[in-house]
Specification:
With 315 residues, the chain is an alpha/beta fold. Helices cover 41% and strands 20% of the residues. The chain is globular and about 55 Å long.
């Protein structure tokens, strides 16, 4: 079936799915948006609520639908799954969310779907790999939201620390979107100015203790938000909106999405969140950026943890 480049679907209408739908509405990226949920009335209610704002947004047809409606979508965003509860890690969600994902992928592959799958459900790296294995689609068409959100968190915190616009911060969180993720401090810069040199220019210092404090704040951010309000959804909606924008507008943007590796960084048999070029066809290229020895070792350790989780699934 021919792909409609202006049509997207969101599978799962919980806080995250509904927030992503709202973000898509704000961006005006799509002319058709289909919402799917195991609770049909929930999807219908979200579509009705969002449609009430159409007089103040770009024209878009928002409907509750079925899997038959995803066949000609350019993008299907999967958010369905159990939410992370206080005290739970993302990896604790593997069993139940893999079972949910298996049923979703079965429904999608039963249709003539030719678009891109964007996995957002956690643990996103494990589920991205599972979606690729279960679907049989090319790896370019099965990606995860990865550490795009975590990287945004790092940029925001660094911007506050350095008293500079966070949009001028260039730094990555890579590895697992979870407790074993790492910050690539060795490549961080402010509009092309090396981070350490920028600090000297400003007469400030960013010491190892400061970097560790910022990293821990990023890593533990979801736990802190969940403890206070029960779930995270606005930040991830903004991150998914950024990925969708890169796809729809064929931007060839560099984003740390979750991708299936084929030897990059010395890894294979898993999906990992690393800087990649994203465009109309999904993943265009995985970028192997320079890292310090310590960062490379930390990335390998993160990969080992994810491989263990994947092996237990027996896909």
């Amino acid at each position: 079936m021919r792909v409609n480049p202006r049509k997207a679907a969101i599978v799962g209408c919980g806080f995250v799915g509904a927030s992503i739908a709202f973000r898509f509405l704000q961006q005006g990226l799509f002319s058709k948006l289909v919402l799917l949920d195991v609770d049909r009335e929930k999807a219908e209610g979200e579509a009705m609520d969002l449609s009430d704002g159409l007089p103040y947004a770009s024209p878009v047809e928002i409907t509750a639908g079925t899997y038959d409606d995803v066949a000609d979508c350019a993008l299907v965003v999967i958010t369905a799954g159990a939410n992370q509860k206080p005290g739970e890690t993302r990896l604790d969600l593997i069993g139940k969310n893999t079972a949910i994902l298996r049923s979703i992928i079965g429904e999608i592959t039963a249709r003539d779907f030719g678009g891109i799958l964007l996995v957002v459900s956690n643990p996103v790296d494990v589920l991205t790999y599972a979606a690729w294995k279960l679907s049989g689609y090319p790896r370019q068409r099965v990606i995860g939201s990865g550490t795009v959100l975590d990287t945004g968190r790092l940029k925001q915190l660094l911007g506050e620390e350095l008293r500079v616009d966070s949009r001028n911060i260039h730094a990555f969180i890579v590895g697992e979107h979870g407790d074993s993720e790492l910050a690539v401090w060795s490549g961080a810069n402010v509009s092309g100015i090396d981070l350490e040199h920028f600090c000297r220019l400003r007469g400030d210092g960013l010491h190892a203790a400061d970097m560790d404090r910022l990293y821990q704040s990023v890593r533990d951010s979801a736990y802190e938000i969940i403890k206070r309000k029960g779930a995270t959804y606005y930040g991830i909606a903004m991150a998914v909106g950024r990925i969708a924008e890169a796809i729809v507008r064929d931007e060839h943007a560099v984003l740390p999405i979750s991708v299936v590796l084929e030897g990059q960084y010395g890894q294979e048999g898993l999906a990992l969140s690393v800087p990649s070029i994203v465009g109309r066809n999904g993943l265009e290229e995985v970028l192997e950026i320079s890292m310090s020895r310590g960062e490379s070792l930390a990335l390998s350790a993160s990969a080992r943890q994810l491989k263990e989780a994947i092996a237990a699934l027996k896909l």
